[in-house]
Amino acid sequence: MSMVTSCPACATTFRVQQEQLTARQGKVRCGKCDEVFDAYKTLASYPDEPLPESPATPAGETIDARSTEPAPVQATLDIDPALAPALAAVAGGAAPRYPRAERRLRVAIILLSIGLLLQIIYVLRVPLATGMPSLRPALEQMCALLDCSVPLPKRTDVLAIESSDLQADPKRPGVIVLTAALRNRGSIPVQMPALELTLTNAQDQPIARRIFLPKDYLERAPEAGMRAAGEVNVRIELATGELKAAGYRLFLFYL
Question: For 85-135, how does the pLDDT look when each residue is reduced to its tens digit (9 = 90+)?
């Protein structure tokens, strides 16, 4: 079994003897390209015939690998020069370090995480504002920058028509007046609903139907919604012409 080392400059492989390496602390000169290198870093065993003895090396000189019998040249790898420092560090037993690249990677991960979090908040802004009303001001400020909105929830389950009445206007023939009181029985503000008014005849059959949106029956902006445990009074005047309504039905719903 022979000892073999490889030149880091030209990748040529040579046989060496332990006595030669000990005499010069592993320093040898490549017999092909004259590169002086540390043979211990690439030292390996190579099966072959017994090696001939090499002449003694004078003190103060490096071993010339040309004085030993060369082993067959082994295959080499084409390595990107930019990666050479990292590979050299690995070969020397030290892990490569890229402090600048690591910092950039950490910053990129942080920015991506923030972007993902903002996207989740944007998509879930309405449920978040509904479930946690204290977040609504912050979410509305965010939407002011992103040109979006945080609408109030639609909750027909907490809305009720507390009272309603439909009467003919005594001063204006053919005009009827609908009054109603809408109440939010929930603990959070909700959107104002649409109202559906159906006029019926004496047989309780529909003869006319009309849908009123919040902007049709509110004097203020409908975006304000109905506050928690709040009540809104509605007054709607409607011209019926020749229709002779004997009754009505009133429903609230969301479009």
Answer: 544 444 454 555 567 888 899 999 999 999 999 899 999 998 898 888 889
Same domain, 37 and 65: yes
Residue environment code for 28-54, b if the CB has 16+ CB neighbours within 10 A, otherwise e: bbbbbeeeebbbeebeeebeeeebeeb
Cα 254 to Cα 154: distance, rounded to the nearest angstrom: 7
Span 213-223, mean pLDDT?
A: 84
Q: Give the Cα separation of 132 and 126 in Å (integer).
A: 10
Q: Which uninterrupted H or E stretch holds 122?
A: helix 99-123
| CB neighbourhood size of 169 (10 A) | 13
Residue 30, domain extent: 2-79
Residue whose C-alpha is closest to residue 166's, from 250, 253, 252, 251: 250
* Separation of alpha carbons 145 and 79, rounded Å: 50
Query: What's the CA gap between 86 and 91, in Å, rounded?
Result: 9
Query: Longest C-alpha distance within the chain, in Å?
Result: 133
Q: Give the total number of structural domains in the chain.
A: 3
pTM score, two decimals?
0.52
Residue 175's pLDDT band, with cuts at 50, 70 and 90, is: very high
